[in-house]
Amino acid sequence: MDFSVVIEYFPRLLEGAWVSLQLVMISIILGGIFALPIALARISPIGWIRAIPFAYIFFFRGTPLLVQIFLVYYGASQFDAVRESFLWPVLKEPFWCAIIAFTLNTSAYTAEIFRGAIQAIPHGEVEACKVIGMTKTQMYRRVLLPRAFGIVLPAYGNEIILMLKGSALASTITILDLTGMARTIIARTYTPMEIFIAAGVIYLVISIVIIAIFRQIELRQNRYLGTLSIKVPDKG
Amino acid sequence: MKFKKIALGSALLLGAALSSVSAQAADKVRFVTEGAWAPFNFIDSAGKPQGFDVDIARALCAKMAADCEILTQDWDGLIPGLKVRKFDAIIASMSITEDRLKVVDFTNKYYSGGLRFMGRVGETFDLANLSGKTIGAQRATLGAQYLEDNFEGKADLKFYDNQDNVYLDLVSGRLDIVLSDELPTYNWLKTSESGSAFEFKGDAFMKTDNIAIAVRKSDTQLKEKINKALDAILADGTYQKINAKYFPFSIY
User: Fold this and answer.
1) Of A6, B31, B238, B249, which is least packed with CB atoms within 10 Å of its CB?
2) At A67, which CATH number?
3) Which ranges of chain A have pLDDT less than 70?
């Protein structure tokens, strides 16, 4: 084991880590935006509106992320129609192909998490909204969505960490993310142990930061729960 | 009692299995190839490795009178796998390079290669001015290293896990130019469905590129055995027969 290669190539590993972070952040933000309407459609009382997000979520949760990336990157480019379309400047770039695949994937998972959270709100709170005469929009905006946001946090933080690890698959379509960079460095130094350990540590550090941020948001968002704890007066 | 018997029986069996492994280990050689570098090594429709490298490995085994196994492994896992004894010799069209010599040992060459650019027919190609062009190569190859050393910052470089994906992106138009070994490119241009739309760009270079079999540094015995067998198949015409099966000219 010779960790001097890690020191030598550390700046390049950080460059790769920055690409990984960009991939995760952009797809998580886009995925979150798409997830909300998907989740709301998923709990619609109307059958056919429910069916579309159901099929979407079923496909993206039921197939490997690697297959989805290959379908977007190598699959779409097989067709002349795609290559001649206005979308080609975007689909030509591996970075955007990865963003598309990751966004589709994470929005499916996130929609399920949102749906679960909305449905986890005690029915009494929904009834209370109705009793005081809120419209459906008011009910969602004032009560259901803010409540769901608090419930969703732990599961959502989990999804972001899964996405961070999934982003390593971007290296299969020539993107120099943290994993891609590590593999490129190893191609030159033939020190897989040292470089992969270093890359693993960087992934861990990013995960710890994500966990810490979510812990803080959780504490803030759910601080009202603190008032629920009953203080037993001292008997003395 | 019954349990004891079973335990004793299986212990004996295990012992027998272990001793037969160590007895075999002396003349069992595990060759490994990549399987994505036609016509040198590729996977046939039955899922078996085939190609020039594989034929040479078989001929060498016959000469060494060794019991051989031919395995496949992704390109960038070949040298790490050799180091941790997952196999004994890499016959995957690997060039002898200084970097590789630091970690593994090579036999004498079994053919010589060279690098050559390839691009779309009719497109202009100026080695001195490649800015704005996207050039692709397989990661961890001589071509990729050459691009990194000479064109970093001067062109957009892309590295792939295997050569098949390089070809896919050349055909789709994501790549303007590909740098690879001359012989596999020659084969792709001639035999593949899309090959006719592409051509060599510029002359071949690094023609002193010697392609050899990699073994562990500690395995001097195996290295000598392979070298002897190589000399033998070159002398008795076996090599030439295999060569003619794939190329109408000598590649030695």
Assistant:
1) B249
2) 1.10.3720.10
3) 226-236
